[in-house]
Amino acid sequence: MTNTPASPGTATDQQDATAEEVAGVEVGERRISIPGMTEEGENLAAETNTASEHSHGGLGESKKKSPTSGVGSRSNRHAGFDLADFPQPTGREEEWRFTPIKKLAGVLSDAASDAEAVEQQVSAPETVTVSSLAEGETPRHTVLQPADRAAVVAAQNAGEALHISVPADAEIDEPIRVQITGQDAARRENSHIVLEAGVNSKAVFVLEHRGTAQFNGNVETLVGEGADVRVISLQRWDDDAVHVGQHDAEVGKDASYKHIAVSLGGSVVRLNTNFRYAAEGAEAEMYGLYFADSGQHLEHRTFVDHNSPRNTSNVLYKGALQGESARSVWIGDVLIRAEAEGTDSYEKNQNLVLTDGARADSVPNLEIQTGVIEGAGHASSTGRFDENHLFYLMARGIPEREARQLVVRGFLHEIIQTIGVDSIEESLAEDLENELEIAGF
């Protein structure tokens, strides 16, 4: 059978030359064109995807807002050190709408630290350099760019920053520990910590927060080429503590970076955890575990900035909630820029609600500006016990209370085992047992 080309003016040629619009989507034999998409990927330009004022779509806010607004794309979100660009939030802003603003008044005000608000102890081997950095002294502020008012306030009022540096090619067997102990719930502390890992080094940093205070802390991590770094941030505050913070990292070529946030204590905890890449070939991960009790607000925001090609990322946060007014929030952003070809990325959040009255908000966001990627995806789930799991265990003679405990332990253990420090994993397992006792499990 021979195919004969259609002559000009035929129906076939006219269909090929002019597209038909069906439900706002242009279709035809030449191509399929979807509004907001290009051949390179999703088009999140302001003119096509600007979120309306007070939008809850995760894209940002209206142009009418301050420079803190992210117009359309996550890449347009303002960051900087000028406090005037970050006015006091009202709670109506997209960035703050989940947060109990009144409870953060102490850490959002432009104020210096109170004397002896916290005690800070560092435990590190002699091969690790522990020093301080004045304002403007590198590498301070080479990675962290404040993205909200709290981070700017901490940056301007922290005074000298703690600097912990691991030399190139060093492999530190024991965790480098920073113990931060709050002394008074009414006292305010602004903190800044710089963690630096040299080329081909290997280290684990543990930041542990206990006691009580109004704590505003920034952490920036420089991961050198080929380095292997883990940062473990433990929020084990007393019930009346308030903690806000921004943790930023830049991951070098062929490096491995893992950030693990565990939030069990505190009245309000709000952490922004972000990373970007210095070059290609890196692998970066973020893990989180939280267990909210009655009256607690535990909020975690993550941002993965794929700003260079052929890097991978993985984000997994898991939480459990119990008690009246227990509240958790997770906002996850992944941005795959046009230059980040070959990216492989995934993010997921899972919440287990144990009792009535608890609430979990979960908002995953994914922006793709190039179609040349290995893969990208996101997922979120919030629910009660899987009755099939309970039935399976109880059918084998396990009492209901013990079966419920096993389900919760199994659900959260996936995060605990990523820590890789036996002493911390064991103590967290004990903490979870105490949390289950509170719920009567």
Automatic annotation (TrEMBL):
Q: Fetch the SUPFAM superfamilies from UniProt.
A: Stabilizer of iron transporter SufD
Where composition is biased (Polar residues), the residues are 1-17
Region (Disordered) residue ranges read 1-93
Superkingdom, taxonomy of origin = Bacteria
> Ranges for the SUF system FeS cluster assembly SufBD core domain?
187-411
Any matching Pfam family: SUFBD_core
InterPro entries (alphabetical) = Fe-S_cluster_assembly_SufBD, SUF_FeS_clus_asmbl_SufBD_core, SUF_FeS_clus_asmbl_SufBD_sf, SUF_FeS_clus_asmbl_SufD
Positions with biased composition (Basic and acidic residues):
53-64
Q: Which family does it belong to?
A: Belongs to the iron-sulfur cluster assembly SufBD family.
NCBIfam families from the xrefs? Answer: sufD
The protein here is known as Fe-S cluster assembly protein SufD
Species this chain originates from:
Nesterenkonia halobia
The gene name on file is sufD
